[in-house]
Amino acid sequence: MSLISIVSYVMMLVCVLVGVAFVTLLERKGLSYIQIRKGPNKVGYMGLLQPISDAMKLFTKEPTFSIVSNFLVYYMCPVFSLFISLIMWVVIPYEVGLLSFNLGMMFFLCCLSFGVYSTMIAGWSSNCKYSLLGSLRAVAQTISYEVSLALILLSFIILVGGFNFELFNKYQEFIWFVLVSMPLAYIWFSSCLAETNRTPFDFSEGESELVSGFNTEYSSGGFALIFMAEYASILFMSVLFVVVFLGSDFSKLFFYIKCVFIVFVFIWARGTLPRFRYDKLMYLAWKSYLPVSINYLVFFIGLKFFCFCIYN
């Protein structure tokens, strides 16, 4: 890896972390207006410095440690979670000297599967029944929706003929994939909600029945890292949704407007949808999403074969 690639990646991570700070502000302001109230408006102009104030408060608070927790594993899980959330950004195909490898989609699927381990081990190492229940829920729902996510990505791998995310920019120059595969876009987006533990699929947190679930025992810095990992994942999934379905010309401002809109839809979903019953997600993933994903996979295979026969 060249020096310019390392510097570019570090600069991007700084931008991602700043973006995470202001996504939290956007969420708090968005939810407050949905609930007809003002939200953060005291720190800085219209509350713009509220994320910095929150970060300072969280990282300077005294950490609390549960006596029965498995201390080393318990405190390393948030670090691992944030690491996974940030390392996934290498697959985004910026043309400014960043890493751009031909197996980006495979790397993304591997990181996606790794993400659940931090949640699972955090719940186990806390030695708290609520945390353990939350982590078990996370494992069960991951098995359910990641099958559909992988099949959708496999459909597009067949359509674009490679594993590099740069190919999506090339193939969506004239028409966006969302127009030819609208059901897949809906499935992908709702699976992203489940992947990032967002309403209506936030079963691993479940405040009403699990007292915040897998992160019940975390406070101060550990909680802040879990918080940052979640919002970095939301930002990443929003950018990836735009890359896969809405065209990905990174040199245009419109790309970033689309990303902000998708982030807002994440927040919109949280402000309007109630939490699903747990078995409803399983039913949705296995009985609804999986058949549609398989049908589209067969359709794209047939389409690719038809095009191959015509041009050869």
Automatic annotation (TrEMBL):
GO terms for molecular function: NADH dehydrogenase (ubiquinone) activity; NADH dehydrogenase activity. InterPro entries: NADH_UbQ_OxRdtase_su1/FPO (IPR001694), NADH_UbQ_OxRdtase_su1_CS (IPR018086). It is found in: Mitochondrion inner membrane; Mitochondrion membrane. GO terms for biological process: aerobic respiration. Its main location: mitochondrion. PROSITE patterns: COMPLEX1_ND1_1, COMPLEX1_ND1_2. Keywords: Membrane, Mitochondrion, NAD, Transmembrane, Transmembrane helix, Transport, Ubiquinone. It is an enzyme of class 7 (translocase). It catalyses: a ubiquinone + NADH + 5 H(+)(in) = a ubiquinol + NAD(+) + 4 H(+)(out). The chain crosses the membrane at residues 6-26, 71-92, 98-122, 143-162, 223-247, 253-273, 294-311. HAMAP family: NDH1_NuoH. This is NADH-ubiquinone oxidoreductase chain 1. The lineage of its organism: Eukaryota, Metazoa, Ecdysozoa, Arthropoda, Crustacea.
